[in-house]
Amino acid sequence: MSIRTYFSKAFLSSRFMLWSLFWINLLGTIYGYQWYWKQLTYTAETKSAIFLPFVPDSPTASLFFTAAIGFLLMDSYLLRGTEPRYRWIRGIVEAFAVITSFKYGIWAVSMIWAGVYQGDSVSWQDWMLTISHLGMAAEALLYLRLYTYRPLSIFIVAIWAFLNDYMDYGYGVYPWLPESLEDDLNAVATFTVELSFVSVIVAYVMMKIRLILEKRQP
């Protein structure tokens, strides 16, 4: 089996691959929310419960990617939905999965190694988080040909992405950073907003490529 086979639409949409990614992401999501539990508790006690949806960025991204895989599994079991409401919800979920998985996959790795660059020691957790978050970004790109989202979905998710950035750095509910980066908060905030722009553009370009490939199909 050639390496191209592993990137083929048939392999990526196989039940083995879909179920594997579904459980990997679901378990990663659970672990991620546990990772954020202290910050969630701290935020609820010192600020307000209204900020809680904006705290756990990475696990929320992986949760939506899990849901996106769930829609693909429904397709694999011939349970395709054709009504507008189904397509609209699916498009929102997919766009959210792509934009946030790519964004926070890159963001987390950047923060870990920026901290290391400034003198933080490297632990096994740093390597684990680096690999898992790079995987988040990669898998968001991997399923380009199987997504269904359209421009309106991207627009809606873009609003959420920038609102999340505003809440994170306007109200101080950003993910806890390595201590060495606390004095670079303005730079981190700028990088995060720029990464939101890049992630939205990536989602849009992926959509355009997908539409071009669909037109080329016989």
What does this structure look like?
The structure is a single chain. With 218 residues, this protein is mainly α. The chain has one domain. It has eight helices and no strands. Helix 5 (84-117) runs antiparallel to helix 6, helix 5 (84-117) packs across helix 7 and helix 5 (84-117) packs across helix 8 (185-216). The model has no long low-confidence stretch (mean pLDDT 91). The chain crosses the membrane at residues 12-33, 61-79, 91-115, 127-144, 151-167, 187-207. It holds the Pfam family DUF1405. This is DUF1405 domain-containing protein. Keywords: Membrane, Transmembrane, Transmembrane helix. It comes from Paenibacillus radicis (ex Xue et al. 2023).
Looking at this protein, list some descriptive labels.
DUF1405 domain-containing protein; globular; DUF1405; transmembrane; transmembrane helix; 218 residues; mainly alpha
